[in-house]
Amino acid sequence: MTERCPVCSHEIQPGDAVCPTCGFRLLGATQAFKPLVIDAEGGAPAPGPKVTATLNVVRGPQVGITFTLPEEAITIGRSPQCDIFLNDMTVSRMHATIEPEAGCFIIRDANSFNGVWVNNESVEARTLRPGDFIQIGTFCLQYEEN
After folding, report:
1. DSSP E strands: which ranges in the chain?
2. Which band of pLDDT confidence, cut at 50, 70 and 90, is reported for residue 44?
């Protein structure tokens, strides 16, 4: 089984001290887990979120990485605790949130220093549409629906 960075999911080598893609410091104690799958006879459905949308990094330090948007609100920022970790000083620690609402995704600025830009327009909140370009610091991400 291939080791993956817990932040960006990039493949890492067993001896790596940091992720070569996002720079996350690997402590060696990180362990992966897989959720239990409970069959229909167990009375609970098997876990597994539906993949509905992605953010693809098209410009910036992590070009080529794709983030899958889950069915719950996520955070974007420079803090490693954010769901989408963008490691650059032009990104605020807690820069933005994306949350599903009424069958679509809405991005909201979290009072960031450099703001959130969608298709070259500064926004406080915006419903995302396929093909939208989101600028967060030096990162440009393209929103796509699957």
Report:
1. 3-4, 11-12, 53-59, 66-69, 74-77, 84-85, 96-101, 104-109, 116-118, 121-123, 125-127, 133-136, 139-145
2. low
